[in-house]
TrEMBL record:
<dbReference type="GO" id="GO:0005737">
    <property type="term" value="C:cytoplasm"/>
</dbReference>
<dbReference type="GO" id="GO:0051087">
    <property type="term" value="F:protein-folding chaperone binding"/>
</dbReference>
<feature type="region of interest" description="Disordered">
    <location>
        <begin position="1"/>
        <end position="33"/>
    </location>
</feature>
<dbReference type="InterPro" id="IPR000740">
    <property type="entry name" value="GrpE"/>
</dbReference>
<keyword id="KW-0346">Stress response</keyword>
<dbReference type="GO" id="GO:0000774">
    <property type="term" value="F:adenyl-nucleotide exchange factor activity"/>
</dbReference>
<dbReference type="GO" id="GO:0051082">
    <property type="term" value="F:unfolded protein binding"/>
</dbReference>
<comment type="subunit">
    <text>Homodimer.</text>
</comment>
<dbReference type="InterPro" id="IPR013805">
    <property type="entry name" value="GrpE_CC"/>
</dbReference>
<dbReference type="GO" id="GO:0042803">
    <property type="term" value="F:protein homodimerization activity"/>
</dbReference>
<dbReference type="Pfam" id="PF01025">
    <property type="entry name" value="GrpE"/>
</dbReference>
<protein>
    <recommendedName>
        <fullName>Protein GrpE</fullName>
    </recommendedName>
</protein>
<comment type="function">
    <text>Participates actively in the response to hyperosmotic and heat shock by preventing the aggregation of stress-denatured proteins, in association with DnaK and GrpE. It is the nucleotide exchange factor for DnaK and may function as a thermosensor. Unfolded proteins bind initially to DnaJ; upon interaction with the DnaJ-bound protein, DnaK hydrolyzes its bound ATP, resulting in the formation of a stable complex. GrpE releases ADP from DnaK; ATP binding to DnaK triggers the release of the substrate protein, thus completing the reaction cycle.</text>
</comment>
<dbReference type="InterPro" id="IPR009012">
    <property type="entry name" value="GrpE_head"/>
</dbReference>
<comment type="similarity">
    <text>Belongs to the GrpE family.</text>
</comment>
<dbReference type="GO" id="GO:0006457">
    <property type="term" value="P:protein folding"/>
</dbReference>
<keyword id="KW-0143">Chaperone</keyword>
Length: 187
């Protein structure tokens, strides 16, 4: 009987060890599953972090671009509104005869100085004049054809008259130069 009790006792120990081993395997499986879950969460958070970082960088670049454009082109409306002032001053200076220059030389000189100062201010702020000459080739990116006419001795597409200078603000057209263009098909 003692032997049977001993055998039962050994069987109980073996059964307990088997159950313990089973519990350990389940715990290990649970721990591995938890580790896998944590890794998946970590990867998801890392992905979200990288996307947020990329979004922040894109926003920074966009705001930098917007700032540069505002700095370069923010005054375009004012500059465009000042162009007729320049045109009127140029017309006034161009219309003065030699007799009038002698009589009102100080006034004319003052208008010319004001016109030059206006051009200096334009240049300081990135506005440059487009001054085509008669005989230049028509460029639709910088010129606006006000009329076409067949003029003897010219080629088609040549500028035959300049009505008004154009202006650019950095790399953008404020106003194209207004020109007349030859429509001759021969020379």
């Amino acid at each position: 009987m003692a032997e049977t009790q001993e055998e039962e006792f050994l069987d109980d120990i073996e059964q307990a060890e088997a159950e313990e081993e089973e519990i350990n395997i389940e715990e290990i499986s649970d721990e591995e599953a938890e580790i896998d879950t944590l890794r998946a969460e970590r990867d998801a958070f890392q992905d979200k972090f990288m996307r947020a970082l990329a979004d922040a960088e894109n926003a920074r670049k966009r705001s930098e671009k917007d700032r540069r454009e505002a700095e370069n082109y923010g005054g375009s409306r004012l500059a465009r509104d000042m162009l007729p002032v320049f045109d009127n001053m140029k017309r006034a200076v161009d219309s003065v005869t030699e007799d009038q220059k002698e009589i009102a030389s100080a006034l004319i000189e003052g208008v010319e100085l004001t016109m030059r100062e206006l051009l200096n201010v334009f240049q300081k702020h990135g506005v440059r004049m487009i001054s085509p000459e008669v005989g230049d080739r028509f460029d639709p990116n910088e010129h606006e054809a006000m009329f076409e006419a067949p003029v003897p001795g010219t080629k088609a597409g040549e500028i035959i008259q300049v009505s008004a200078q154009g202006f650019m603000l950095h790399d953008r057209i404020l106003r194209p130069a207004q020109v007349g263009v030859s429509s001759n098909t021969g020379s």
